Every structure is written in C-alpha cells, then in structure tokens.
Amino acid sequence: MIWKKNVYDTLVACATACDEYATECSRQQDIEELYRCIFLSLDCADLCRQVAVLYVRGSENTRLLARTCIEVCEKCAEECERMSAERACQIASTCRQCIRVCMTILEMSVQPDSESEVSKTLFVALGRQEMIYN
Length: 134
Description:
134 residues; mainly alpha; Four-helix bundle copper-binding protein; Csp_YhjQ; YHJQ-like
C-alpha cells in the first residue's frame, strides 16, 4: 500500500474532531439526550485513529479496519446531521470526508507492484525502516 499523507491527515483530523465534539457534548446540560452522539463520536475517533496507525505501519489489516471505520463514521455523521446544529454538521462533514478516505484505502493495492512502491511506505520515506525492528 502506497502511503499518502492526505489519507493519514484526514483520518487524524476526524479522530481529533470527534474527540473534541464528544467532550463538548458531555459538557451540555441535556447530556442524557446526547449519549448516543457522544458514544458514536468516541467510537469514530478511536477507529479513525487506529486506521491511521495501521495505515502508517503498512499493516495488511488496514483495509479490514477501514471497512468498519466507514460504518461507524456513517452512523456518527447521521447522528450529527439529525441534531442539525452547526457544529454537529461540521462533524458530519468531517466524518463524510473520512468515509471517502477509507474508500480510497479499500481501493488501494494490498501488495506493492514493484520495489519502487515499497520505497514509498512511511517508514522508508522517513528513513526510519529500523523503527519497525526496534
């Protein structure tokens, strides 16, 4: 799988936004009505973060988790859209961007076609291939 910075950045941005939104919601007075949104936002953040980690590592399991991430991001986006607040709509938009990125991950080749593609993984790009052995 060829590493693309925008894929990683989108996953991390979604994780960060959903974490922040869950925190914001947990401070509201009507927190009981926001439980589902809070939990979905936290689930979305955790999954996006984990897909980012697997993606950077070049794990063969990235695509497997990306499928799950798509489902959870979709639920989170739908719940946020249901709320119709401006901030909630921003989160929904971020989740939808993440869904598109996860779809891109699913379309990526699992095995590199050539030696030149191997050199495009994050560890090699950073000159840190020894990181995976330490």
